[in-house]
Amino acid sequence: NSTAPEAKPTTSASKKSKVSSSVVDCHQETTDKQALYALTFESIAKKSALILFLNLEKASSEVLLSVANFLHAELSSLEHNVHFYIGQYQVSSKSLEEVNCICLSKVAIQDEQMGKAQPICSTIKVGTVPAPVNT
Q1: Deepest of 32, 49, 74, 95, by most Cβ within 10 A of its Cβ?
Q2: Is 134 part of a structural domain of the chain?
Q3: pLDDT, tens digit, 9 for 90 and up, residues 89-120
Q4: What confidence tier does 133 reach under pLDDT thresholds 50, 70, 90?
Q5: Structure pTM?
Q6: Cα dist from 7 to 4, 10, 21, 53, 95, whole Å
Q7: Residues 98, 22: Cα–Cα separation, whole Å
Q8: Which residues contact 40 (CB under 8 A, 6 or more apart)?
Q9: Domain that holds residue 85
């Protein structure tokens, strides 16, 4: 039995649906942060994979310094990107919370207006049905 793998939504698709949603999902926030950290570590692994092919024990101090500078620059760049994307995510989250507050305010106003509306009197008479008798 071979079945086709189930299509999974991409990160960008989940972000689009999240932006279009007016409710902030805290569980999704945790999942997005975990995905961001996973991508960061994957990127570090890819960038530093070439270092394994260097024989650092026999390398000159210039090569070691170059490798150290490269890793420092990459980690600084990744750290900056992580902080940037977390900041962007927090701004998006805050915007969605503000949208939620606006929507809830509108609903509250509509509820209040509906509460002030006069009820319509019904002319239909409702009959009663006797309860069943236990024998």
Answers
A1: 32
A2: no
A3: 888 888 888 888 888 888 878 777 777 766 55
A4: low
A5: 0.33
A6: 9, 9, 22, 37, 30
A7: 9
A8: 78, 81, 82
A9: 25-89
